[in-house]
Write a structure and sequence with these properties.
By secondary structure, this protein is mainly β. Helix content is 0%, strand content 52%. Strands 2, 4, 5, 6, 9, 10 and 11 form a 7-stranded mixed beta sheet that branches. Strands 1-3-8-7 form a 4-stranded antiparallel beta sheet, with no helix packed on it.
Length: 113
Amino acid sequence: QVQLVESGGGLVQAGESLRLSCSASGIIFRLSAMAWYRQTPGAQRELVALISSGGTTTYADSVKGRFTISRDNAKNTMYLQMNSLKPEDTAVYYCHAFTGRFWGPGTQVTVSS
């Protein structure tokens, strides 16, 4: 049974940092490209950052220079380090595994001004 579980969300003030984690089980994590998406009410889910199985990364323009995606294949875990957070970063953040197209339940990030 595949499980993706996000953690690390919360309420912070603008300019502060958070680190999200996504713990994976039931998939061959090291072989899967992984990504973070986010969604606000009434909007489509949008790609935040992606990391290939080989470690190549891609970022949305809105988070470049502020967010860093990484993975630890030994721990079957992906991370999203979010610095200099802005109120517009407020959303539910989802972990996604491209192999099998699996999603986690999401974790809320709220940034107050």
